[in-house]
Design goal:
Order of helices and strands: EEEEHEHHHHHH
Strand order of the largest sheet: 4-3-2-1-5
Distance between the termini: 39 Å
Largest sheet: 5 strands, antiparallel
Number of domains: 2
Shape: globular
Strand content: 15-25%
Structural class: alpha+beta
Number of helices: 7
CATH class of the largest domain: Mainly Alpha
Number of strands: 5
CATH topology of the largest domain: Methane Monooxygenase Hydroxylase, Chain G, domain 1
CATH superfamily of the largest domain: CarD-like, C-terminal domain
CATH architecture of the largest domain: Up-down Bundle
Length: 164
């Protein structure tokens, strides 16, 4: 269970903060809800039922060990993350990328970002791929910023240092 002011990640909206935990009566039953605000996103806030948070995919932000794994993947010049997808048609590849970005696992988001970054080195990305790469980057930056309690600019600097 999360507490007020905890940093959390919603798979569809990215990183946010629990701003309130409140009870509401719905269909005659009292339910507790997390109100989550997303300062890095266009959406203001969402309400997530406390008893459904796991099913939604709500999770805590990453720890230092996971940040090191993220940075390792980003700096790894030998790894061919998601290479098996590269030979697929655009539509299959894009669907696979979107599914991985929306799954809630930041490591999968990093792999998509890395694959799109590698692809961008060899050819121009289409609009959908550019948008997805920007979205993945934003999710990574948000996780690093919230996990390290730093501003986005500092998180971006960490990310820029990890690119080869």
């Amino acid at each position: 269970m999360f507490k007020k002011n905890d940093a959390v990640v919603h798979p569809a909206h990215g990183v946010g903060r629990v701003s309130d935990i409140s009870s509401q009566f719905i269909s005659g039953r009292e339910k507790e809800y997390y109100k989550i605000v997303f300062p890095l996103n266009e959406i203001d806030a969402v309400m997530v039922p406390v008893d459904n948070a796991d099913n939604v995919g709500l999770r805590a932000v990453v720890d230092d060990e996971t940040i090191l794994e993220i940075l390792y993947i980003l700096t790894d010049t030998q790894g061919e993350y998601l290479k098996f997808i590269e030979d697929e048609s655009f539509h299959k590849r894009h669907k696979e990328y979107v599914d991985r970005v929306q799954c809630g696992d930041i490591i999968e988001v990093v792999k998509v970002f890395k694959a799109l970054q590698n692809r961008a080195r060899n050819k121009d990305l289409g609009l959908k791929e550019k948008f997805l790469m920007e979205r993945a980057e934003k999710m990574i930056l948000g996780e690093i910023a919230f996990a390290k309690d730093i501003c986005l600019d500092d998180a971006k600097e960490i990310l820029l240092r990890s690119k080869f």
